[in-house]
Amino acid sequence: MSEQKSPIQLLLPRQYVEQARQAVRHAERRIYIISRCFARGSATDGLIDDIIDASRRGIDVHVAADLLTFICDRTCTLPSSLAGAGMRQTDQLRSELEQAGAEFYWLGAKKIPYLLGRTHSKWTVVDDDVYAFGGVNLNQSGTTERTDYIFHMHDRQIADNLVSEQHLVESIELGKGHAVDREIDTQFGTMLLDGGKINRSIIYKHAVRLAKKAESVLLVSQYCPAGELARILKKKPATSIYFNPKGSAKDPVNNIMIGTRSTVKSLTTSYQRPRYLHAKFMIGTMPDGTKLAITGSHNFSTLGVRAGTREIALETSDPSIIDQLERFFARYVS
Q1: Can you give the pTM of this predicted structure?
Q2: How many Cα neighbours within 13 Å face the side chain of 265?
C-alpha cells in the first residue's frame, strides 16, 4: 500500500519556481505575490514572463516587493544601489508588469531610516494554491544560491486570508490603513502574521513561548537568535542551533551583522556547510514527547522586531510538516 501524500509539501527553491510557473500558466482568477526580493535573473525570468502573460489575459495580478530588492544579488551599499543602474534595471520590471495590467507596489519606499518598516514576508497565491511559510525570495540568489524551502498547499481559506492581508499591505503603503497582527487557525496549525508594528512580533512571542515549554529545541535560522529567546536557549542543555557563521555572506554589511550578533549573544553555531543558510524554523520537543514547530520568514532575531518588520509563519504540531522539516534538516543543514 503506497504512502498517502501530505496535503502540504516542502519545496526546495527550484521546485518552488517550477511549480509556481505551472500554476501561473493555468491561473483562472488571481495571482498575488509578496517577496522581500523580486527581480529578474536566469532562474526567475520564466516565472516573471508567465506572470506578465497571465496579466495580459485578464488574471488579477498583484505583486509587492520591498524596496531593498534593489540591493538583492548585489555587493554594493543601499545608497549606491538606489542611485544607480541597479534601481533602473529593477524598476523596469515594475513598468513591465503595470503595462501588462498588473498592480505593483514597492514596499517601504517612504520609510526613513530604511531599516524601519521593512517587508520580509514571502508568499505566492495562485487561485487557491499557496506557497508560503518558508524563506525563499524570488530573485536569482534566493532561488539558486541558498539553503532554503517553502511549503505548497491547496487551501482556499489560507489563500483568501493572504490575499486580504496583501490588500491591507497595499492600503498601508498608500496611507489608507494601519498595521494589524493576526493569528488565524488553519487545518495545518496557526498562521501568524506580523503586521509591521514597531517593537511587536507575535511570531517572536510564540517562539519564546515554545522555547520555554520545550525540553529540547532545534533552531535553524539565517542569523543568531537574540533577546529573550537567546537567553532561554542558552539555559537549555538540549538545544541545537544552526545559523551562518561570520564570513558566509557575499554582502560585507551582512557579514558584520552575522558576526556581531553571534558574538554579542554568546551563542555558537553548529552549521558547517559552505552554502549560505536562509531557512528559518524551530522544532520543540515537549516533556511528553510531542513536538511543536514554527516555520516561516522570521529569523528569530530582535532586530526585525524592533524595526517593525512584516513577517509570516506557521505554528504547527502537524506530524507531516514536522517530519518534512526534520528530513530537510538532516539532508541540507546538519
Answers
A1: 0.93
A2: 28
Q: What are the residue boundaries of the structural domains of the chain, listed by start? A: 8-178, 189-333
Given this model, what pLDDT does residue 56 score? 98
The yes/no answer on whether domain 189-333 falls in CATH 2.40.170.10 is: no
Q: Give the start-end residues of each E strand in the chain.
A: 8-11, 30-35, 60-66, 103-107, 123-126, 129-132, 146-147, 150-154, 182-186, 189-194, 216-220, 239-242, 276-277, 281-285, 291-296, 311-316
Torsion angle of C-alpha atoms 256, 257, 263, 266, degrees rounded to 10: -160
Intrachain domains 8-178 and 189-333 with the same fold: yes
Distance of CA 230 to the CA centre of its chain: 21
Residues of the chain with pLDDT under 70: 1-4, 71, 73-90, 111-114, 252-253, 255-257, 259-265
Give tens-digit pLDDT for 318-329. Answer: 999 999 999 999
d(CA 7, CA 265): 38
DSSP for residue 68 = G
- The CA distances from residue 168 to 1, 85, 192, 306, in Å, are 46, 31, 15, 21
Q: C-alpha distances in angstroms, 144 versus 33, 44, 89, 134, 137?
A: 19, 10, 20, 15, 10
Contact present, 143 and 39 (Cβ < 8 Å):
no
d(CA 323, CA 108): 36
CATH 3.40.50.970 assigned to domain 8-178? The reply is no
- Please state, in angstroms and as integers, the Cα–Cα distance from residue 47 to each residue in 26, 41, 72, 208, following that order: 13, 10, 18, 37
User: At 41, which amino acid appears?
Assistant: G
Rounded Cα distance between 80 and 331, Å, is 38
Could you tell me the three cell numbers for 219?
Answer: 533552531
